[in-house]
Every structure is written in C-alpha cells, then in structure tokens.
Here is the input.
Amino acid sequence: MKAFVISGGNPLKGEVEVSGAKNVALKAIAAAFLTEDEVEIKNAPFIDDVMAMVEIARKLGADVEVKKDHRIIINSTKVRPVKIPLGMGAKLRASSVFLGSLVSRYKKAVVPNPGGCRIGARPIDRHIDGLRKIGIDVYYNGDGYFRAKADIIKGGEFRFEKNTHTGTETLILASVFCRGKVILENAAEEPEVDDLIRLVNLMGAKVKRTKARTIEIVGVDKLHGTSFEVMPDRNEVVTMAVGAIVTNGRVFVKGAREKDLKIFLRSLNRAGVGYEIKEKGIEFGKKEKESVKPTKVTTNCHPGFMTDWQAPWTLLMTEADGESIVHEAVYEKRFSYVEELAKMGAKISLFNPKVENPKEFYNFNWEDGEKYYHAAKVFGPTKLHNAVVEISDLRAGATLVLAALAAKGTSYLTGIEHIDRGYEDFEKRLRKLGAKIRRIDKEGEL
Ligand code: EPZ
Here is the structure.
C-alpha cells in the first residue's frame, strides 16, 4: 500500500512551476484520432491518468511517443476502432470522450462506461442524449460498454439539460465532420473546453462560441495534424496556493494565469488573504498581519467557483476566524475528506442548506444525490494536528496532504495512488518548497 509520511509545521517557500492541465491533455489524446496526420501535444503532465489514456490510444493501434520533455506525439494512421477494454476505460472518466472522436472518424466506437473519482454516480446520460440528437446510434446493453455507430452525423441543434464539461467536449469531437452544422446550447464554458476548441481548430475544424453557453460547429471534410501546447492546470495552482497560505509560507506559482482563476482570487480577497500577480505567474501567501476571514462559497460550473477547488477551500476555512459555509452544487458526494480532516482536529459539520428548487439548483441529477449532505459548516480557527488518514479522491487527497503539511507532528496518508492520477512528482515538488514528505511503498517502512 503506497503512502506518504509527512512531518508538518514547515512553511512552503519558493517557486513551483504549474503543470499542463490534466483535463485538457486527456481530451487532446482522444482528439488526435480525428486525423491520420501526426498530432504533437506539448506541456502534457506525466500523471497516471494521462498514461492510462496513452495506453488506450496504443490499444486502439495508434503509434504514441512519450517524450521526456512532456511531449506526446500521436499517429493514428494504423488505428482499428476496436473495443476499449473495460479495465482500461473504467480507470478514468475522460475515456468517454473517445465516443466522440472514434465515431467522428470511424463511424463507430465501443467505449466502457467511464470510471474516475468516486465523487458521485457521474453518469453520461447528457452525452448520450446529445450524440443521439446528431444521428449517432448509442446503446448500452448492461455489459459495461456503450456501443455507438453512425452512417452520417447530421447537423442540428442540441440543448444540454444541465452543464456537462466532458459532455460538451464529447459532442464537439463528434460534430467536427457533421453534415452542415451543429449548435450546442447550454454548453459548458470551462477554460479547458476552450483549450480543446483551440486544438481542434488548429487541426482545421470550425468551432466557435457564438454567444453565452452556445457553441457552433460547422462540419468540415478532414482534419490535419498540428502541434498544440496544453494550458496550465488551474486546479493545481489552487492546490499550491492554499498550501502556501495554510503553512504560513509564500510560493510563487510560475505559469499561473489570472484569467483562469478570477473567482478564486476574488474569494481570496473576500477571505482577506492577499496574492501578487507577477509577470510570469502569481505569488501566494498570507502577509504578516493578515488573518483569514470566514466566507460563504457555493461551487458551480464556469465562471462559478470550480468544484475542484472546494476541498482546498474548506481546509483554508479551518483557519478563518468564525463560521464559513462551503456548498457543493456540482457533485453529489464530494465531502469524503471531511471526516479525515476531523481526525486532524478540524471542526466541520455537514448539512443541507434550504434550496428552493434542488432539481434545478444542483448540477448533478437530483435523484443521484438527494440522500447526501451538500454543504459543510466550517468552524475556525482550529489548529490541526497529525493523524493517520485515508485519501479517497484526487483533489481531496491533495487537500489532506496540505493539511498534514500545516499540522504539527507526523501524519501518515494512505491511498496516494489517487494523487498520482493527477499530480506529477507531487512530493518532489513539495520537498523543493521545504516540505518534509516522503513516499513509502510498504506498510512496515513507517
Ligand atoms: C469534468 O468532470 C472534470 N474531469 C472534473 O475534474 C471537473 O470537476 C468537472 O468536469 C467540472 O468541471 C475531466 O475533465 C476528466 P460534468 P465531469 O460532466 O465530466 C453530472 C478532476 O479531479 N452529470 O460537468 O464529470 C455529474 O455526475 C475532475 O480533475 C450527469 O449527471 O463533469 C456531475 O455531478 C473531478 N450526467 C455533474 O453533472 C451527465 O451526462 C458535472 O459533471 C454528465 C454529468
């Protein structure tokens, strides 16, 4: 069982460079199948999820070179659109976007029902509704696979019932060769979606946002190869920012882009915690006299407060002078880390705020989530202490690492394979900032 041993209490100080965005690199690998030319993906983070997508690409018959300088070069000339094995596809959510690119190119695809973090049911009903609307025949016979095929991909209009980040991406990839054009309404506006649009347009697609939450894809005959650089990972920026603040340190996050983080930076202002926008990044850390103020935050799809920032924000609020509320409106089950934080002394109680129309208000399908708590009341300030904790998903796991770095004493964190899915060399980069953290592979090594 892999684990981290962390001796907390040291401030994180210095400079760290943000990696390329996980949630762009994963989809760029699927998008490369839209052309038989070579596609070069630069600034790809070398994380387990990216390597899992590379494995799927190779299984489909693509030539994939992974270069040491974070470049992935994909050539899909020899691809046969075989079934993506359940064991491979079920490892991660992003595998479902292959439904879009394989059907676009080969008019068929057999893709496992996606897995990913256990932060909810995470069905893909919205993706399937959209694919069917543009003439793709998709069915699921309960054996773990979605089967899709299409003679031609019709143009047409499709309105997403509720926001879906990867659903929007799947429909974009499925529509690039459509007859006429496809209009997607109530489409996701996450910056990662815009980065994928940038990639397919570099390949010769005609995709643009025509108005708020509306994307138009004009069909083209063919796409060509390109070289594409992945945007910085804004979720990793937030992880490093909160790490600097809760350890009373100061960290310059090189590559952090203000435009991707607007509401996070505004929330930091509301919490009374400064930051400094510099030429090539952003510096985070509390100033001497600054103390953290309590806040009320509700997660939402872009441009709202990103759900992947919810766990680190809750940790930050354990330092606030007073009571804060963190309301998770995107996923139905994203507070599993709260009981682990409680083992470190955090005072957090889960509850359900009064919501007029939950079916409308929450981004998840209400029937998937009505039985869970959707908000946390955080009482601060509390001094955290060491503990033995279990990591159960990616962003929550990173938050528990930050908590252990802030807490006095030695903590032991299991389940770090969730960290390896989304953070490259996490402990090495934290050690460079002064953290006392080491990885152990066997229980006895503690
Ligand atoms: C993507 O997940 C990201 N993952 C998530 O990052 C991110 O938190 C999320 O978008 C929001 O931006 C990848 O890109 C691989 P959704 P996804 O479709 O596709 C429900 C990380 O750690 N829903 O917008 O799951 C769904 O269950 C991950 O990097 C349906 O019910 O986001 C969820 O509750 C975590 N039916 C909510 O909507 C559908 O057909 C948002 O899902 C689609 C979604």
Summary: The domain at 3-18+232-440 is CATH 3.65.10.10 (UDP-n-acetylglucosamine1-carboxyvinyl-transferase; Chain).
